[in-house]
Amino acid sequence: MNLDIIQITIILAAVIILFITGWVRMDIVPLFIPFSLFITGLVDANEIFTGFSSSAVITIASLFVITTGLVRSGVVKRVADSLNRLTGKSDLRLMLAGTALPGFIAGFIIVTATVLFFIPTLMRMAFQAGVSRSRLLLPLVTSCLLGANLTLIGASHNLVVNSLLQEQLGYGFALFEFLPLGAILLLTGVLYSVLLGWRFLPAVDPANDRPDDYRPDLIKTYGLDDRLWEVWVLEQSSAVNKTIRELGLGERYGLCVVAVVRSDQQMPAEQTELRIKNGDILLILGNEAIVKELSESEELFFAGHPREQKKLPLSTAEMVEVVVPPRSSYIGKTLTEIHFRENTGLSGIALWRDGTPYRTDIGHIALQEGDGLLLFGDRVKTRSFKPGKNFRWLHAPQREEAPLELRPYGPYAIMILLLVILSAALNWLPIAVASLTGAGCMVLIGLLKPREIYTSIEWQAIIMIGCLYPLGLALQNSGASSLLAETLLVVSNNNPLMVLALVALGSIILTQPMHNVAAAVIMTPVALNAAQALSLNPKTFVIAVIIGSSAAFMMPMGHPMTLLVQKPGRYRAIDYLKYGSGLSLLVFFVIIIIAPLFWPF
Fold it and tell me: Which of 278, 282, 301, 592 has the most CB atoms lying inside 10 A of its own CB?
């Protein structure tokens, strides 16, 4: 064993230990890899940053922009909303749709965006169906990780491995070359989750399944923590098609409906003849016990305090806060006089003046300079509200994922994605050129502003990939990959199927404590050297690395999305291990049994 092999072994061991222990943040560890490789002479100055100029990094950055365009135009939202029509009240259909549909979409847009967009949808549907969200969130992530293997562009490590393959051999994978195996993997993941996997996940009571980080600060500030409640109208509720008068909230219960949120509209709650519909959100003032009594008698869902905007919202409505600035033209006027709700779709539910909150008859109080207003409405309305010169934000909402004004661009966004896929699939353009052009088109048609190109790219992922990339070169340059390949050959007695199994097993094990890109970069040179030593098809062994690195679900650190659902799903480390072990075993068998059928030795 020469000095170079000893040095790369020490560097790899340090990287793995730091990833596993978390002593240094996962996104910080790769920053020191270029320095380590350069100072030891394992990679020269011309090679150290080749990862940042690789076609893989250009493609991944471009796909982030294209994905943002699809999200901003409402394309992903329309697909997510269709889950309600697909599932109805069936738990089985909810689990099937919540895994199969996102998994399929993850094959064409960034996994991270797919998971982030479907999490709130599934959490809300779990509430309404009485299903614990812990039974849905991890299966959602695993289906997306497996579904990302439907195409070459589905996962970042697919592109990184393909780039390494092209550098070594001069050719790589076609865009849809993964499709048959990816479909089998997705089907395997969906069936496992629906038939068996959910049994290994904790069952948190949906009635108490609320985010741990919820803090009703605005509710407390305005003194509404014991009297303002959000209630959802479910499909089976006896309140459906009743008017507010027929519900008898005032006469029978002594309650007051402050606002009714329906889809993208803010309904006038004071109209007693307004008929309640399935999916409406009622904002009610009154005693908590009485509101719960109403919810039970009318089969409504008591959702507790209204939510402030947060990372994973369950409700379609939220609260925001504005202040009346000097020289506002609304000073001296009431919300009713300026037709505030009719013009904005938002309801004023409380007012703050001179250190005192006012919570009744807000619409008829003349506004003064410095007044704080607590507003409630659908997220689409709160996030499209423009305060102008008459109001200033005190507690602004998060940016709307799919603004109404951008939704007409949806067909154009889909067309751009299809043209990118078609031009790459038919070899009209290299995939990096096609995706970069598609990103530019998203800006050209007005879906994104030029500066939004840079905010839509997940730079943490780009920097991690660029810094990890030279590890593969160092493994080749030092001879470590050849040594590892020779070790595999000795252990397997030169049996191709056994070598394939060891490559797959090594990829699956490595991807658990570290990012799957890191696992793929380490194992790809080993797979290529093993194939060369046996004079066999290198794609057979490289595909084992790609698929094995996707199986990052036995530990929460293998992928950012498995870590993201840990808190909302209330998962423990043992839950990942119990759920992920069986699925990882199935993925292993798919690799060694099915992969050689599509890529013969």
Answer: 282
